[in-house]
TrEMBL record:
<feature type="binding site" description="axial binding residue">
    <location>
        <position position="444"/>
    </location>
    <ligand>
        <name>heme</name>
    </ligand>
</feature>
<dbReference type="Pfam" id="PF00067">
    <property type="entry name" value="p450"/>
</dbReference>
<feature type="transmembrane region" description="Helical">
    <location>
        <begin position="6"/>
        <end position="23"/>
    </location>
</feature>
<keyword id="KW-0472">Membrane</keyword>
<protein>
    <recommendedName>
        <fullName>Ig-like domain-containing protein</fullName>
    </recommendedName>
</protein>
<dbReference type="GO" id="GO:0016705">
    <property type="term" value="F:oxidoreductase activity, acting on paired donors, with incorporation or reduction of molecular oxygen"/>
</dbReference>
<dbReference type="InterPro" id="IPR036396">
    <property type="entry name" value="Cyt_P450_sf"/>
</dbReference>
<keyword id="KW-1133">Transmembrane helix</keyword>
<dbReference type="GO" id="GO:0005506">
    <property type="term" value="F:iron ion binding"/>
</dbReference>
<keyword id="KW-0812">Transmembrane</keyword>
<comment type="similarity">
    <text>Belongs to the cytochrome P450 family.</text>
</comment>
<dbReference type="InterPro" id="IPR001128">
    <property type="entry name" value="Cyt_P450"/>
</dbReference>
<dbReference type="GO" id="GO:0044550">
    <property type="term" value="P:secondary metabolite biosynthetic process"/>
</dbReference>
<keyword id="KW-0408">Iron</keyword>
<dbReference type="GO" id="GO:0020037">
    <property type="term" value="F:heme binding"/>
</dbReference>
<dbReference type="InterPro" id="IPR002401">
    <property type="entry name" value="Cyt_P450_E_grp-I"/>
</dbReference>
<dbReference type="InterPro" id="IPR017972">
    <property type="entry name" value="Cyt_P450_CS"/>
</dbReference>
């Protein structure tokens, strides 16, 4: 039946009025300042190979709250203490979710891990498991002997390598990986003596480096979805490849753990974090069932996060000390006075070593492992300082920029541990001037473990050895460039020469 003309006219008028209202609402949005976006790519043309530095330079022009477009998606960048508080504390629950990315899809079993899973029942349950089961104070204390044994093994290996040129990152990654492997997996699955090892230590470290790089890259398909299937940069192919390697390893780990559970029956007692996860997966009272792929995703998170952060931070710390022998001398004096040269540093000594603790904090200020934190996603429309932040906006918090803010830090580009001596500023997510592990609900759940390994490793390295650059190399020739991924390690691995300075029997060589 044909509609009367007046009905058609009325419909057109109503549609036009509706479109004008919608357009008017859009025009009324007061978005934060930022550069004008280009068609299709938005502001991606302004982001270089080190995105944290590119965004810091832009924030110098547009301010601590900046609006960008990465392809099709709106992005807000917070680069000040106040903005960090807004996103991570005041309105934490509004920005607690995660954007969908290729890394989350292809490297974490379709967002099944702790890092990339979106806000909801599954993530809340995962966070609860971490806080109450995996990283409880009691459990971490029960694993102290593992941390001690592996740090001692590191010191012994360096003793045996003394006099020659040492590639420090290799040694640091080994100790971190062994600590995490024993705590999470129950043994050193990557030990060369392990008959059932299905991947070499060298290959596994390469897998970890690749995983961290790919979880932080600017994949063009994450910003321009219709280009995703083309994989123009080759990142998705690499993600699938490294994921297959990890899956083969993790299947082997879970099979071995399940075999022991079946073999021991009712007498089974959990020895490591994988055992705990498998027990939780069997719990019928869980709000959301933890599937096998979820156990693998959690396990991969624990291994990767616990290994990379410690090794990267300690390597940066030693690098800075090689440039500042007066700081190294102060640390040595404190260690000799508090610990003495007749034994190694223990975890209980750390609170009595304020200068060494200050070195750790200063390293984390200048070289945060995750300079932009992991991206968040706004769940609802919010406003800050009169600016609108629409729902579904991606949010980046630049702890790298905050660490270089001259309104917060005196001489921010200089390495000065003294700024933390006597200071109450800590790294536990309460002081927004220093957020190496993030803050709020999405804060790194394993930060306390990472901090223990970093402090114990660095303190003993400084206590047990004299440090210098290879012969003929001057301090000003030491490159301090970084590469960008989910973590930010040195671009050129640090090469050093170490000389033991404690009694030989302490090294156990």
């Amino acid at each position: 039946m044909e509609l009367p003309p007046w009905v058609m006219y009325l419909t057109i008028i109503l549609v036009i009025a509706f479109l004008r209202v919608v357009a008017g609402r859009r025009r009324k949005l007061n978005l934060p300042p930022g550069p004008r976006p280009w068609p299709i790519i938005g502001n991606l043309n302004l982001i270089g190979s080190l995105p944290h530095r590119s965004l810091h330079a832009l924030s110098q022009k547009y301010g601590p709250l900046m609006y960008l477009r990465f392809g099709s998606f709106p992005v807000v960048v917070g680069s000040s203490v106040e903005m960090a508080k807004f996103f991570l504390k005041t309105h934490d629950v509004s920005f607690v979710s995660r954007p969908k990315t290729a890394a989350g899809k292809y490297t974490t079993y379709n967002y099944s891990d702790i890092t990339w899973s979106p806000y909801g029942p599954y993530w809340r349950q995962a966070r609860k498991m971490c806080l109450l089961e995996l990283f409880s104070a009691k459990r971490l204390e029960s694993y102290e002997y593992i941390r001690v044994e592996e740090v001692r093994a590191l010191l012994r290996d360096l003793f045996n390598s003394s006099g020659g040129i040492v590639l420090l990152k290799d040694h640091l990654s080994t100790v971190s990986l062994n600590v995490i492997s024993r705590m999470v997996l129950g043994k050193k699955y990557l030990d060369r003596t392990e008959v059932a090892a299905i991947v070499s230590p060298e290959e596994f470290k390469e897998m970890l480096d690749e995983l961290f790089l790919l979880n932080g890259v600017m994949n063009i398909g994450d910003s321009i979805p219709w280009l995703d299937s083309l994989d123009l940069q080759g990142y998705i192919g690499r993600m699938k490849k490294v994921s297959e390697k990890f899956d083969r390893f993790l299947e082997h780990v879970l099979d071995e753990h399940n075999e022991r559970r079946q073999r021991e029956g009712e007498g089974f007692v959990a020895r490591d974090m994988v055992d705990v996860l498998l027990q939780l997966a069997d719990d019928p009272n869980l709000d959301v069932k933890l599937e096998r792929h979820g156990v693998k995703a959690f396990t991969q998170d624990l291994i990767a996060g616990g290994t990379e952060s410690s090794a990267v931070t300690v390597e940066w710390g030693i690098s800075e000390l090689l440039l500042r022998p007066e700081v190294l001398e102060k640390a040595t004096e404190e260690l000799d006075r508090v610990v003495g040269r007749g034994r190694w540093v223990e975890e209980r000594d750390v609170p009595r070593l304020p200068y060494v603790e200050a070195i750790v904090k200063e390293t984390m200020r200048l070289h945060p492992v995750a300079p932009m934190l992991v991206p968040r996603l706004s769940r609802e429309h919010t406003t800050v300082d009169g600016y609108d932040i629409p729902a579904a906006t991606r949010v980046l918090v630049s702890v790298w920029a905050i660490g270089r803010d001259p309104s917060v830090w005196d001489a921010p580009e200089e390495f000065r541990p003294e700024r933390f001596v006597g200071s109450q500023i800590d790294v536990k997510g309460h002081d927004y001037e220093l957020l190496p592990f993030g803050a709020g609900r999405r804060m790194c759940p394993g930060y306390s473990l990472g901090l223990k390994v970093i402090q114990l490793s660095l303190a003993n390295l400084l206590h047990g050895f004299e440090w210098r650059l290879p012969a003929g190399m001057k301090a000003e020739e030491l490159s301090m460039e970084e590469i960008f991924g989910l973590s930010t390690p040195r671009k050129v691995p640090l090469q050093v020469v170490v000389k033991p300075k404690l009694p030989a029997h302490l090294y156990g060589a």
